[in-house]
């Protein structure tokens, strides 16, 4: 169970190797991925946004940040999640697992988000909730603000290199003025 829990936040290309070992038989990877897609789609009607998610996106946009989603989810799963967030008016760009070769902790997803936003690593901040998010951002030379919604504790996120850690998205929104995300002009990096 600990090994499976430690894989939360990884996409399938990384998760199966992490849980089953890199020397495993890869012949069934496509079937496993298709089964995961079908199972997850059954839960779309039950998806709920974290408290404050839409509000955080809108407030960051209002403050001058460019909002670029960088999700390990497939494009169709990301579309389902975006519908739940109901904050497309605040989202400028999005990238998903469909746009990259390797998922987090590889930096590919962060690089894709930077390319879509037109920002460089020194002009972005990443928000994530797993050590894999923090590591992917660090490998792309982008600081990461973390929240505890991914099932990992503050220590794990800070050890992975998080700039700061917040209890959740709603708490980050409530304490935004004390965060690195407070004002893009105050931060040495810009937006993403």
From TrEMBL:
InterPro entries: HAD-like_hydrolase_sf, HAD-like_sf, HAD-SF_hydro_IA, HAD_2, HAD_sf, PGP-like_dom2. It comes from the Bacteria. Pfam families: HAD_2. NCBIfam families: HAD-SF-IA-v3 (TIGR01509). This is HAD family hydrolase. It comes from Kitasatospora cystarginea.
């Amino acid at each position: 169970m600990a090994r499976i829990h430690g894989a939360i936040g990884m996409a399938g290309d990384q998760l199966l190797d992490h849980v089953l070992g890199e020397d495993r038989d890869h012949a069934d990877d496509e079937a496993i991925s298709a089964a995961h897609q079908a199972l997850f789609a059954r839960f779309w009607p039950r998806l709920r946004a974290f408290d404050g998610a839409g509000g955080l996106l809108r407030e960051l946009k209002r403050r001058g940040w460019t909002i670029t989603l960088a999700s390990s989810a497939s494009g169709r799963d990301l579309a389902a999640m975006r519908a739940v967030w109901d904050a497309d008016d605040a989202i400028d760009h999005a990238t998903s697992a469909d746009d990259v070769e390797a998922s987090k902790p590889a930096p590919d997803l962060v690089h894709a988000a930077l390319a879509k936003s037109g920002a460089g690593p020194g002009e972005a901040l990443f928000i994530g909730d797993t050590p894999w998010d923090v590591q992917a951002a660090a490998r792309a030379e982008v600081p990461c603000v973390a929240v505890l919604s991914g099932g990992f504790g503050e220590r794990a996120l800070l050890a992975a290199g998080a700039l700061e850690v917040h209890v959740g998205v709603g708490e980050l929104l409530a304490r935004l003025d004390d965060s690195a995300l407070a004002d893009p002009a105050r931060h040495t990096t810009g937006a993403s």
